[in-house]
Amino acid sequence: MGCEIEQLGGQIRVAGEMTIYAAADLKATLSAAIVAEAPACVFDLSQVTELDTCGLQFLLMAKTACAARGIEFGLIDASDVVRETFGLLHLGALLQSPTMESDA
Amino acid sequence: MNKDPALDTFIAECDELLRDMEAVLLKCEQGETDAEAINELFRAAHTIKGSSGLFGLNSIVAFTHVVESTLDRIRSEGTAISAALAAVLLECRDHIGALVEAVAAGRTAEDPALGKSGLGVLERLTQLAGFPPAGAHASARSSASAPLTEPVPAAESAAQSDQGLRVQGDSWHVSVRFDPNVLKNGMDPLSFIRYLTTFGAITGLTVVDDGLPELDAFDPEACYLGFEIGFKTDANKSRIESAFEFVREDCTLRILPPRSLVSDYVALIRDLDGSQDRLGELLVNCGTLTANELAGCLQLQDERASSEGSAPRLGELLVDGKMVQPSVVAAAVEQQNDARASKEAKTTESRSIRVDGDKLDRLIDLIGELIIAGAATGSQARQAGLARLNESALHLASIVEEVRDQALKLRIVQIGPTFTRFQRVVRDVARESGKEINLELGGTDTELDKTLVERIADPLTHLVRNAIDHGIEKPDVRRERGKPAAGTVRLNAYHDAGSVIIEVSDDGGGLDRDKILQKAVQRKLVAEGEALSDAQVYDLIFEPGFSTASQVTSLSGRGVGMDVVKSNVTALRGTVEVSSQPGEGTQVRLRLPLTLAIIDGFQVGIGNSSFVIPLDLVEECVELNLDAEQDTGAPAGHITLHGAVLPLIRLREMFEIGGKPGRRESVVVVRGGGRRAGVVVDELLGELQAVIKPLSRLFRQLQGVAGSTILGNGRVALILDVPGLVERGRTLSGRAHDVRTASRSMPIESQVNG
After folding, report:
1. Among partner residues A34, A57, A89, which is closest to B224 by beta-carbon distance?
2. In terms of CA atoms, which chain A residue is nearest residue B285?
3. How would you list the strands of the sheet with A72-76, edge to edge?
4. Which candidate, B8, B548, B599, B648, has a CA 20 to 30 Å from the CA of B355?
5. Core vs surface per residue B609-645: b (16+ CB within 10 A) or e
6. Do residues B474 and B539 both lie within one domain?
């Protein structure tokens, strides 16, 4: 239950429910990562068990924010839940990453 | 049978546009044509087509489409509209009018006769315009001469007629925008989309995230997303709607059925805010474009971008590639431009709003009640003798008065548009009767009550037709008489002493006094040998049963339903006058009140009764001094005032009010129908605002009374019909069998009692 967020340099690992309850923490984490001037910002979504509109739109915003700052953005190891949601919204292209491909 | 209120708006809008079209076309027929005129016509046709599409009125869409494309081609070729073409376009306009009317009357089923006449009109149009028909009826294509234009490729024209108006594909289109609060309210938009998949398949979806702010401004708990969804299902619209039931309040939902009209998508794109940049995706998800078509466009865009250094707008490419209906892109581009044109345009747009007439009437009604209640409060305050209460009551009264004025102004419109409509009547009647007629308009900015404008249109039409039919001579006769071959009918309006005057005049032969008199004697309307003034003779044409159409023709005069005109005008508390000069023309003058709801009145008392005289008609009040009356040698029943003889109307006798006049009587000098009279009363009670309450049917025939009102003290006062009273003052004894008054040198009392 709940949501755990770990930030290691440019890698952010989200585990559990990526929902409105975690939204504020997610934003704080992203801000920290960006301030750290990491060359990349990669979300590890392998442990995400739930993704709602809030979590989704956070990821969309993060992508734009990174692009604006010239930071590489990636979503890797998407869990089934994440993949299902992105598929539903025809956003599957966002999930393409080396790790993903090797998974598939 | 619940009629869609939006449909009413549509009908009103169409009426307006059709009227604009008519005005432009009439000008074109006169040879005044320019590019702007064609643009205007095109825009009108385009808008009618688009709105009809929204309501699924396919017969209007199909017909208007042909008209629109013809206009479009005329426009693109820069050719002028000839008089002949304008005439056919007028027919087209009329046909659209007939179709709209059928919708307004609730006849949704297509009328075969109407459809057939429509085809006939279109055939004439396409032949005359020299264009191949736009696919609506292929038979005309062979006969269409095409020297002016290169023929439109058959494939394109077929596409326009068959599918051009409808988008291909069998998906519903669901467009939804969520309110920012939806997440905080515990709703998850994703769950609604997931729910959709339980009764259908999502064939296309775009997450509209244009609203997402930058990181710093991002509120993690607000929803910034919208979705454009292509959805394939067997379910109906309400089922799809029900999927969003829980967020009905928190989202903007638009649903288009499969194979919707292009115009529906156009409207959708127009409606969407903040998604301008996503035109491409939008069109894909609308089903207007396939993904392949879009991909082709994007590729083309990339290529051009690299060669020219700047990316052309996607919309242009789509049209270049003939991948979408220009109208769809036009709407999208329009929206982009609109967004740029910013708020300025928006504010002008919202400056005028359409209000249901009934609501306005209800408001006026309530304000009427407010005035009565205010008057009651005022008189209570006066009686209570409390200075401060009195003061605030007066203040209240002045505000109420202002509110009344403003509210009445809401109903006030200019008469111009009504007059302009007569261009058409004149043109048609002139054609029928083989006469040349010019219509002159004057005082088009004269303002009057909308109800009046509506109700005066019919009598005016009657008068104008009459003027042309019977007033103006045939061209050869006119030439013989040394007049220009083209006759002139003039419509004029102006304000005069609290009334609106509308004049219909012509430069025809004038009324034939002798023939009218002869006819009147025949019909026993006047006694033989009776001496009548010209005005009295001309007034005879308003007598009911004076003449019917056939007799009028033999009279070579007027009178077709003139009594109907008169009764219509009288019902509006107006009067009709006619004057005529033999060989020079005839003028009919309608005098109408400014408004029908409330009047400023002057209250007078006789015995215990109160009467109200419309204040605008009061000239002055003087004390009745019988010595002076006799001194100046005026006939009995008259006084001399400022050197002129003034007939007196004694209300006490007229209304048979008992009791003796007070020691000091007053005379209220009133003016009506261009004449003056003195109304003799016991008391002058001052000004008041009177809300007119119509008399019930039972009292409709009562003469000299225009209506009633309720006074502040709750009592009823009758409102005097001043023109009627003045009229009586001069009515001839031979024709008047009711109360006769002062125009004859006989004592009034003996007349009343006798």
Report:
1. A57
2. A90
3. A3-8, A11-18, A40-51, A72-76
4. B599
5. bbbbbbbbbbeeebebeeeebeeeebbebbbbbeeee
6. yes
Chain A residues closer than 8 Å to B183 by CB: 20, 53-54
Q: How far is B222 from chain A (nearest CA, A)?
A: 8
Q: Are B751 and B729 in contact (CB under 8 A)?
A: no
CA distance B471 to B595: 31
Q: Which of A62, A68, A88 sits opposite B194 (nearest CB)?
A: A88
Whether B441 and B543 share a structural domain: yes
Give me the sign of the Cα torsion angle B538, B544, B548, B554: negative
**In which residue are the tokens 């008089």 written?**
B83
* Per-residue pLDDT at B547: 54
Are A91 and B220 an interchain contact pair (Cβ–Cβ within 8 Å)?
no
- Name chain B contacts of A58, Cβ cutoff 8 Å: 220
Contact B193 A89 (CB under 8 A): yes
Give the range of the structural domain holding residue B635, as residue numbers without chain letter: 598-753
Q: Assess whether B176 and B108 both reside in one domain.
A: no
List residues of B whose CB lies inside 8 A of any A CB. 183-184, 188-190, 193-194, 197, 202, 204-207, 209, 212-215, 218, 220-221, 223-225, 227
Residue B752: band (very low, low, confident or very high) from pLDDT cuts 50, 70, 90: very low
Could you report the per-residue pLDDT of B40-88, keeping only the tens digit for each? 888 888 888 888 877 778 888 888 888 888 888 887 777 777 888 888 8
User: Are B89 and B211 members of one domain?
Assistant: no
Which of B178, B209, B278 to mutate against chain A (most A CBs within 10 Å)? B209
Whether residue B696 is contained in a domain is answered as yes
Tokens linked to B700: 């409709």
Domain ranges of chain A: 3-103
Average pLDDT, chain A: 82
What's the structural domain count of chain B?
Answer: 5
Per residue in B563-604, pLDDT tens? 778 878 877 778 888 888 888 888 999 988 776 666 778 999
Q: Confirm or reject CATH 3.30.750.24 for domain A3-103, answering yes or no.
A: yes
Q: What is the pLDDT of residue B634?
A: 61
Which tokens belong to B34?
Answer: 């320019």
Option in B183, B205, B212 nearest A89 (CB): B205
Whether B155 and B60 share a structural domain = yes
Closest Cβ opposite residue B214 in set A53, A65, A85: A65
DSSP 8-state assignment for residue B66: H
A58, A85, A88 member nearest B220 (Cβ):
A58
Percent of chain B past pLDDT 70, that is, above it, reads 72
Q: How far is A102 from chain B (nearest CA, A)?
A: 27
> Looking at this protein, which amino acid is placed at residue A70?
G
Q: Specify whether B604 is located in the same domain as B564.
A: no
Last residue of a domain, one of B162, B190, B220: B162
| Lowest-confidence region among B284-288, B332-336, B457-461, B548-552 | B548-552
Is there a single domain that holds both residue B423 and residue B474?
Answer: yes
Q: Quick one: tokens of B734?
A: 């031979």
- The answer to whether residue B25 is domain-embedded is yes
Predicted structure pTM score: 0.44
Cβ contacts of A53 on chain B, cutoff 8 Å? 183, 188-190, 223, 225
Question: What value does the mean pLDDT take over residues B370-389?
Answer: 85
- Residue B167 maps to a domain: no
Would you say B412 and B448 are in contact if contact means Cβ atoms under 8 Å apart? Answer: yes
DSSP letter (8 states) at residue A74: E
Query: Do B417 and B516 sit in the same domain of this protein?
Result: yes
Give the tens place of pLDDT for each residue, B681-714. 888 988 887 777 767 777 767 777 878 887 767 6
